[in-house]
């Protein structure tokens, strides 16, 4: 691997401060070419158990440090990530496929959680409560929950880890992470830098492996684990929630979405198209907040579609490391076939194909930017999360009707509203049943704001003060005097 800092290329799991080999090997490949990038230690349930034991043993010392002491280690980690951002981005593009500029953006975004929570942990104040009884004094203190286990997906192999690990570590928790089998190299590179930053052995552990169900059972069922946090599909999230029930763990779930993107007749169409491109085509459409259903008012439909098609046509598919690439591959062939199947089904049911609709010659995991109009709400393409470079346009006439249609889904992660009318914008933002709503913007996720969904899109928040609260227990202390 061609990196400036070869220490970032790690092929063993990181448990209790040691790089640990396994009998089996897990192949990591470049989704753009299929080339083998690495064969890493294929961790399993036993490794996960050792990691949980290590995190449990490390907890008293780490949680016993002052917030300032923990912050100092985290800030060193943050600076090392910033110093190695080019290498980390390169590694990320190679194993995940996104264009290098997007990978650099993810590294900076991921690192920002570490910096911000290093600062925030110094403000974990409790309260003094006005007493109900003159002979008693009432306080609350905030204490770290304990051992935290995390399972993360392949679409953001760096940031989905830091978004969980940074607030957990800052709060005084110790952490075990299982990254997706497709993208373990970014996770292991983060461990190498955490080690260099001086994070004590056992505080942060990574167990990658092909048997995610076996590792997952340990992370969700071990009684020493106080909290489990997951980012991934709703289907797997439900299974893991059930597994956590046996030991009544605290849980955070960042799950799938089905984001509506509503373009009103009073929208600035150029702003709307730019926002739509950003939410729809970033990471080849493989983000949980990717627009799924684009509702356009009938009076501006043709103008919006023409402009969107022009921008989609201008995308440059290619290897993420090639200069000028703006569209990478999907993560694996299964994903490409799924998207293609949805397109074929929609066209067979009356949707109109305006662009794409086919595989690309760049490699077996590439799919053409695809634009469909005349889509109906009952089509699978409008009901399921797409996760590909496929834009799906539906028409509407009335505000009330589009709100009802936008909310008619079990998902509730992100929604988008395009309108220059402040009254309407406020009305619609409030009426949408989603955890996050962006108005006249396509990219909204930031360290300082709470990210998360409602309904079947999740439980809990990541980012901001809410993201930190997930890793504390509030203890009520009552003193008789
Ligand atoms: P996924 O299949 O649910 O996988 C996510 C993680 O769960 C991976 O680490 C996977 O490991 C692991 N996993 C799968 N089956 C498991 C099991 N039975 N037990 C334990 N772990 C298991 O999701 P994905 O397709 O990789 O990721 C895309 C999904 O994530 C989308 O639905 C997207 O919307 C969602 N997402 C949500 C957010 C958010 O913040 N709400 C952010 C990003 C992504 P292996 O890959 O090793 O099997």
UniProtKB/TrEMBL annotation:
<dbReference type="InterPro" id="IPR016162">
    <property type="entry name" value="Ald_DH_N"/>
</dbReference>
<dbReference type="InterPro" id="IPR016161">
    <property type="entry name" value="Ald_DH/histidinol_DH"/>
</dbReference>
<protein>
    <submittedName>
        <fullName>NAD-dependent succinate-semialdehyde dehydrogenase</fullName>
    </submittedName>
</protein>
<feature type="active site">
    <location>
        <position position="254"/>
    </location>
</feature>
<feature type="domain" description="Aldehyde dehydrogenase">
    <location>
        <begin position="19"/>
        <end position="476"/>
    </location>
</feature>
<dbReference type="InterPro" id="IPR050740">
    <property type="entry name" value="Aldehyde_DH_Superfamily"/>
</dbReference>
<dbReference type="InterPro" id="IPR029510">
    <property type="entry name" value="Ald_DH_CS_GLU"/>
</dbReference>
<comment type="similarity">
    <text>Belongs to the aldehyde dehydrogenase family.</text>
</comment>
<dbReference type="Pfam" id="PF00171">
    <property type="entry name" value="Aldedh"/>
</dbReference>
<dbReference type="InterPro" id="IPR015590">
    <property type="entry name" value="Aldehyde_DH_dom"/>
</dbReference>
<dbReference type="InterPro" id="IPR016163">
    <property type="entry name" value="Ald_DH_C"/>
</dbReference>
<keyword id="KW-0560">Oxidoreductase</keyword>
